[in-house]
Specification:
This protein has 9 helices and no strands. By secondary structure, it is mostly helical.
């Protein structure tokens, strides 16, 4: 039992210290006490854990500049996971959750909007993203 706790602690600390996708200071500050949870979900989602990806996509508590930065992190996940994996995960969300993900994408994409439309057409269609 003691070894289990020790190993769990080191895994948690490793998860906290090193987000696979860089996180801005603005996002880190906005996350506050949820930072460790956010990074763990992000790292698991990045390593193709489908449950963690669903949980990560359900995040809906970030606003303003932090929401923009979260949208960029979602874009990085899309690029890493690919269109097929990402759209199949989007299919698991409720309409309300899908709407929130879409809004984060819209603010976080900035100049990458056309890249999502052309390179990830199934995900873009599922989120209702259209050329501006």
């Amino acid at each position: 039992m003691k070894y289990f706790l020790l190993i769990s602690f080191f895994l948690l600390v490793g998860c906290i210290e090193h987000p696979i996708v860089p996180i801005s200071n603005t996002l880190e500050i906005a996350l506050d006490r949820k930072y460790a949870q956010y990074v763990c979900k992000l790292n698991k989602a990045y390593s193709h854990d489908s449950t963690a990806l669903v949980d990560f996509l359900k995040i809906n508590y970030l606003y303003d500049a932090a929401g923009y930065d979260h949208g960029y992190v979602l874009f990085q996940l899309l690029k890493h996971c690919g269109d097929n994996e990402f759209v199949s995960t989007l299919d698991k969300l409720s309409q309300n959750q899908l709407s929130v993900v879409s809004q984060y994408f819209e603010v976080g994409l900035d100049s990458n909007f056309r890249e999502v439309i052309s390179n990830y057409p199934m995900s873009a269609k599922k989120m209702g993203l259209k050329n501006k």
